[in-house]
Amino acid sequence: MVPDESKATSLGFDRLHAFRHFARFTGRTQSQEHIRPLHEYVTCRLVLEGGFRPSELEPRPPLRVVESGPMPRVVYDPSQTTRSEATVLGGLKTKNVDIVVTKGGIGPVLAVSCKGMTGAVRNLTNRLEETIGECTNIHIGYPTLVFGYLFLIRANREGRGVASTDVVVDRTGRPVEGVLRFHQALSAMTGRLGVRNDASRYEAIAMAMIEVSGGRGGELIDDFPDANSPVHFGRFFETLYRRYDERYVVSAPQLARRTRRLEWSVDSPAFEAELRHGLDYRIRMGS
């Protein structure tokens, strides 16, 4: 389901804003500007749906928490926004990671690496090498850290003025061979369950193909990867939360007071009706 055009879109809280920006961006990708709105979407979602404090995230979303009443309240506050990446001490070298959740007295507990490909399918092999190296490096330094990899790819269609090297979807509507191989490789790199598992595996991976043509630009293509794929976008965040709870709450009850994910007060100023209506996920609200 594509979320409605709403206040959520204008604030950057939902995926439509981020995906449309990625689909339409025409500048140099080295600037990372094509992926910046995705960072804001992910950080906002980790707060609203995930129950993490905005102050625990780097970069920080346009949100802050007010401790009043029986439950914390979330306030929309763009002055809180930052764009800095967190520097994580990996096992092999320090690494700037796109989004990191850090718990005081514990350290980095959850991270998401956001990448995007606008063309040049031949470069996907290089992407795999970078992806495996980043994951291994971070997990050597922090074996308990829950690491997610979110990869966007433009669905450049053959025969629409697209260079042959940039074609992602052929004339029959099927992803080209290089994309299929990349999906297969990512599927083998996800699903890390415990701290003694393969350090080169991510806890969760999502591969999202984004429509670029016509009025559908920015929509998520749901039929690839299909619903049963281990890297389908629909299960990405749920998997991150499950692995986090297993490691930092259930398996460490002494830390649960500090690590348990929060529930937000239903009367939070950020939860206006039009905002909730436009989100593609559920806000973690207390009863």
Give the H and E element order: HHHEEEEEEEHEHEHHH
Mean pLDDT across every amino acid position: 88
Gross morphology: globular
Tell me the number of structural domains. Answer: 1
Could you describe the 3D structure shown?
The protein is an alpha/beta fold. The protein has helices at 7-11, 15-24, 36-48, 124-141, 177-187, 236-250, 256-259, 273-278, and strands at residues 57-58, 63-66, 73-76, 86-89, 94-97, 99-103, 107-117, 146-154, 204-210. It has one domain (7-278). The chain has eight helices and nine strands. The protein has a five-stranded mixed beta sheet, sandwiched between helices. It has a two-stranded antiparallel ribbon with strand order 2-3. The chain is globular. The relative contact order is 0.17. The model is unreliable at 1-6 (pLDDT under 50).
Which features characterize this protein?
287 residues; alpha/beta; five-stranded mixed β-sheet; two-stranded antiparallel ribbon; 8 helices; 29% helix; globular
